[in-house]
Amino acid sequence: MSDYPTIPLRDYREYPLDEMRERLKAFYSEVSRRRTVREFSDRPVPRDIIETALKAAGTAPSGANLQPWHFVVISGPETKKKIRDAAEAEEREFYEHRASPEWLAALKPIGTDSNKPFLETAPYLIAVFLQKFGELADGRKVKHYYPVESTGLATGILITALHQAGLVTLTHTPSPMKFLNEILDRPKSERPFLLLVTGFPADDAEVPDIARKELEEFASFVEL
User: How does pLDDT run across 142-151, given as a tens digit for each residue?
Assistant: First the structure.
């Protein structure tokens, strides 16, 4: 039995089978258009749109419902420049020294390098942090369970929500990302998970002509 007070499952909706299929087809059609973009417009995006997308991310399931994430939304040009400078320093170290030949070969078709102008051009950067533990009102620490998995689920919903709104995103993961704690004044107990760049695409934005795996390549069904 749960120690939480319980309420009836009023918000659940069951649909007729045909409607289930149509709803899923429509959702798949919409989400299949999502592409990672590296060329952003500097057009402003109303803050309330970002706030609603973050609320959607906050509905993600999490270990023991402890919601071990924190999102820092950056729009100020001064802070974006600091983040770009720090990220590009790490990226240069990666491309010139840390990356294996195999990794560089995998990245070559995509055309990425250490130059990251989108970190200043896009109207918003969202720094996603995972929290290893929380703190109660009396100062006691509470361990968070499955923080990586939980934060990943929340981030996936955030990306989908922003796409639903008509924005594009880029998941950026310079390594290490400890500079985000310092620049954004986040505690050491939080670990940077990724930087999500979001906004409108540039008018001349292009993306690699790549395909996604077919269902049979990434899913299997066990029926015995």
Answer: 899 999 999 9
For residue 98, give both structure tokens: 């840390």
Query: What sections of the chain are H helices per DSSP?
Result: 17-31, 47-57, 77-93, 101-107, 118-121, 147-164, 179-184, 215-218
N residues, the chain: 224
What are the strands of the beta sheet with 69-74, ordered from one edge?
Answer: 69-74, 124-131, 190-199, 168-172
- DSSP letters spanning 18-40: HHHHHHHHHHHHHHTT--B---B
Domains (range + CATH), the chain: 36-202 (3.40.109.10)
pLDDT digits (tens, 9 = 90+) for 45-86: 999 999 999 999 999 999 999 999 999 999 999 999 999 999
Q: Hey, how many other C-beta atoms are within 10 angstroms of the C-beta on 181?
A: 17
